[in-house]
Amino acid sequence: MSMNAILIIYKIVASVLFKNKDRHVYPGSLSIKLLDLAAEYGYLEVLKWMHYNNIGECSVEAMNKSAENGFLKVVEWLHLNRSEGSSTEALDNASKNGHLSVVKWLHFNRTEGCTVKAIDKAAYFRFIAVIEFLHFNRTEGCSCDAFDGASFNNQINVLDWLKKNRTEGFSSKHLLQ
């Protein structure tokens, strides 16, 4: 293992200890957070090393957070080498951050799916390519929050697209403002 990888592990451990300084951290909970944090920040080589050396477990947060942050190679590795899986948060938050390649991969390779928040969040942050992919490939749809969020952020092109392709419309809350 390289010195750089050791420093990364040290930073992850220090981060976990700092975040939990007011409560006792048990070794089992520390090791779970270490794997989740390595995945969240895209440290694939560190994640592999911890996995192959049986250092702790990880949770669905590993895949959820690596997807949210756009680390496709980490998501793929977790899928092939770990059994914890993910939740709908993986696709929802990858959509929110515009990670189209991760959104596509999760759609074609995982079964957790997403919620209406995927399109809602993509609309708020102006990721039309993500909105289009989800619209044409998923059945969850969106809520009026997609229209409201796009309107709130003056995303005219997103609003035009939603108006032409979706039927949810604005919320009454938005119309009163």
TrEMBL record:
* Source organism: Heterostelium pallidum (strain ATCC 26659 / Pp 5 / PN500) (Cellular slime mold)
InterPro entries annotated for this entry?
Ankyrin_rpt, Ankyrin_rpt-contain_sf, SecEffector_AnkRepeat
> What name does this protein carry?
Ankyrin repeat protein
TM region(s), chain numbering: none
Q: What Gene3D superfamilies is this protein classified in?
A: Ankyrin repeat-containing domain
Q: Could you tell me which Pfam families the record lists for this protein?
A: Ank_4
- SUPFAM superfamilies, per the entry: Pseudo ankyrin repeat-like (SSF140860)
